[in-house]
């Protein structure tokens, strides 16, 4: 039986909570935005969660992919429930998609009915806004987490 999951979602300064029991989720991640999705994939593999997960993970080059081996291992051990698609913006390489995570790429890999979760740097979110419009997803099917990088000033 699938466990109901409570997820804290934040976008800029607003924080909201959402409870969901998804059957399929597509994750759009960029850079270190992969970390919450890695945790979800691990929960699926360990049996704590039960839904199908497609991760579209954008990196500049194959050398920049965070948690690459760990993600591949989770996908291999998930019984087909976790799929990871790497998208490289600055490198064309066999076995990887090239460019950005577009609406067309999401349609190619996401199941027919899904919720989309987005996590990554601010430019990814700006780009994702346009892609979400093209997908025609209802706002209730799109969740975001935005990590803001703040400048630190020395105390003196």
* SSE-based structural type: alpha/beta
Would you list the SSEs in sequence order as H and E?
Answer: EEEHEHEEHEHE
Q: Determine Rg (CA atoms, Å).
A: 16 Å
Number of E-type strands: 8
What is the terminal-to-terminal distance? 56 Å
Strand content: 25-35%
The profile of the biggest β sheet is: 6 strands, parallel
Helical stretch count? 4
Mean of pLDDT: 81
Low-confidence stretches: 1-21, 149-156
Instruction: Identify the quaternary structure here.
Output: single chain
Q: Fraction of residues in helices?
A: 25-40%
- Main-sheet strand order equals 6-5-4-3-7-8
- Mass-distribution shape: globular
List the helices and strands and how they pair.
Blueprint: E1 5-11, E2 14-20, E3 24-30, H1 35-46, E4 52-59, H2 68-76, E5 82-88, E6 97-98, H3 103-109, E7 115-120, H4 122-135, E8 142-146
Parallel strand pairs: 3-4, 3-7, 4-5, 5-6, 7-8
Antiparallel strand pairs: 1-2
Helix pairs in contact: 1-2
Description:
The longest helix is centred in the last third of the chain and has 14 residues, at 122-135. Mean pLDDT is 81; it is low at 1-21 and 149-156. Helix content is 27%, strand content 31%. The chain has a 6-stranded parallel beta sheet, with helices on both faces. Strands 1-2 form a two-stranded antiparallel sheet. It is an alpha/beta fold and 156 residues long. Helix 1 runs parallel beside helix 2 (68-76). It is globular and about 35 Å long.
